[in-house]
Amino acid sequence: MNDEARDRGDAFSRCHPVLNFFYFAVVLGFTMFVQHPVFLVISFLSAIAYAMWLCGIRQILKMNFLVTLPSLVIVALLNPMFNHYGVTPLLYIESSGNWVTLEALVYGIVLGCVLFIVILWFSCYNKVMTSDKFIYLFGRVIPALSLMLSMALRFVPRFTAQMKVIRNGQKCVGMDVSNGKRMKKIRYALNMVSILVTWALENAIETADSMKSRGYGLPGRTAFSIYRFTKRDRVLLGTMLALSAVMIIGCSQGAAFAQYNPRILLAGIVVQGKTAQVSCDLALALAVYVCFGFFCLMPLLLDVAEALAMKRSRSYIGNEMTLTYRQMYEEIAKEGGTEP
Asked: Among 66, 151, 267, 304, which is least packed by CB within 10 angstroms?
């Protein structure tokens, strides 16, 4: 996705906020609470594809390799060190007198993958669900809490931007953390943190005063909204509800069954010669997996469809303009040939 398209926003971001919030609620809910490997693989591929489309390939790869992957490894290794359930021992730790089991190690990897995928989805959430959308959805129901959550969700990006401004100012006067000896660097760093915290407190007070002066949260107060529930939104919402219904029915029948304690049992997958005894048949399980994949890829498919439609439209307009100019030249040539 090029910079111009990213600045303009993707097609799913321009849908109604109800659709945006419902989509991320369903995707995050299934990712966190359904820990079947097939669901995690589908969610991971969809999340990384959509995140790269929204944020760019370089930024996502940088975030994953520097922050997310080390966290995944730490979580995956900590679980078998402190939890010793399972029936398949792998390693005996003499210092603690405990076994490292295959089940604990696999579940630690699963927990790390869940954390990794959720972070990817939240990177997409921050791009799509802006603060004005969140306040539009929950401003009348829980006005104070919605304002606090909106401020908290944009806490990190605003602090990062302000920290860059503060550091550039400190560099100009020679008081950056890269200048001086160790004690001076520490003092300069504490000074920048103090400036940042002071700015944050003042900004919070200004925001609270501004919203209070506008009558935010008062009963009977009306609010202007640019969001309209269009025909496309109704079609997308109906499709999402239908897919969600199939996924919920399938999961209730055992299509997403996953057990890691004391033995690994997965629906539809044979592990160590054993499989989960669930009532869900293979056809329903495959239908659930396909529906979940289509649901996760729906924003990306919508973006691709819009990009192709825009390309066809531009090609059609270009052909029409070419034909128009050709007709004009032919008419001019005919008129020039009939002149005496």
From this structure: 66
